[in-house]
Write a structure and sequence with these properties.
Helices cover about 75% and strands about 0% of the residues. The chain starts with 8 loop residues before the first helix and ends in an 11-residue tail after the last helix. Helix 1 packs antiparallel against helix 2, helix 4 runs antiparallel to helix 10 and helix 8 packs antiparallel against helix 10. With about 270 residues, it is mostly helical. It contains ten helices and no strands. The longest helix has about 35 residues. The model has no long low-confidence stretch (mean pLDDT about 85). The protein folds into two domains: about 60 residues, no CATH class; about 200 residues, no CATH class.
């Protein structure tokens, strides 16, 4: 396969022309989206250019602390995104979200890094260090982006359901149920809601559209079978991380709704 064609400034300017067409089409149809499209275009360019320079620095610096700081920043942005997508303002929710995603992502990356990427018998292509930015940062970024969506869906579902079911929950409590027993079905439903989009994606992946990872790797000249192998790995990583994140987050959220006397806190 041919090597990846490098895009220069002229190519990127031509790409911006696509957004110019979109803005013109919005104006023609009087959709009122011109400002939003223009802002989205500007933010996309700015954010990705900055990201490119930051990643170039991290890759060249080749230091574990640089990689860890980069991952911590992405994780914090992810946690804030989840918090903002849960409608009810719950005290201490940001540390709860941050911790849930941190634990699930860390466990998955450790498994992948030391059992697959750093496999002892892979002597030729094995990375030189455990913190190889080429592998750790892209894999962590994909995991965190998907964990954010799963956590936001599960968290919002659980919070809204508990707030709408005070009477039913208090009935269970009055009959001797523990707080966890009183909300166990709501928690299960929230976990299912958070993980179902991932399961649905796994059911149809490769049948309807080419996944983004395969597309990117094909453009870079990687063999199609190798690209498919990486996509399989990534989908399994995302699935287990999303499930573990929603399990931890919903368990923590359930405790927030009850006081030390096992009474439901009305919000």
């Amino acid at each position: 396969m041919q090597e990846l064609i490098k895009l220069d400034v002229v190519d990127l300017a031509s790409a911006v022309g696509l957004m110019g067409i979109a803005i013109g089409l919005s104006a023609w149809e009087k959709l009122g989206l011109e400002l939003n499209l223009a802002l989205a275009t500007g933010r996309t360019i700015l954010q990705l250019v900055v990201l490119g320079y930051v990643l170039d620095f991290v890759f060249a610096f080749d230091n574990p602390w640089a990689v860890l700081v980069m991952l911590a920043v992405i994780l914090t942005i992810t946690a804030v995104g989840v918090r903002n997508r849960i409608s009810q303002k719950i005290p201490q929710i940001l540390p709860l979200v941050w911790g849930s995603i941190f634990v699930s992502t860390t466990l998955t990356l450790i498994y992948i890094n030391f059992l697959i990427i750093q496999r002892p018998d892979r002597l030729i292509t094995q990375p030189h260090t455990w913190y190889e930015a080429q592998y750790v940062i892209p894999l962590a970024g994909m995991i965190l982006g998907n964990a954010m969506n799963a956590a936001a869906i599960a968290g919002e579902r659980l919070v809204s359901t508990i707030n709408a079911s005070h009477l039913e929950i208090e009935t269970h409590l009055s009959l001797g149920a523990t707080p966890q027993q009183a909300v166990t079905q709501y928690r299960k439903d929230a976990i299912r809601a958070g993980i179902f989009p991932t399961i649905n994606q796994m059911m149809i992946i490769g049948m309807v559209t080419l996944p983004p990872i395969i597309t990117g790797q094909l453009l870079s000249g990687i063999n199609a079978r190798e690209a498919a192998s990486y996509q399989i790995l990534i989908m399994f990583m995302i699935a287990v991380t999303n499930l573990l994140t929603t399990v931890l987050l919903t368990r923590g959220l359930c405790r927030v709704f009850f006081n030390s006397a096992a009474q439901l806190i009305r919000n």
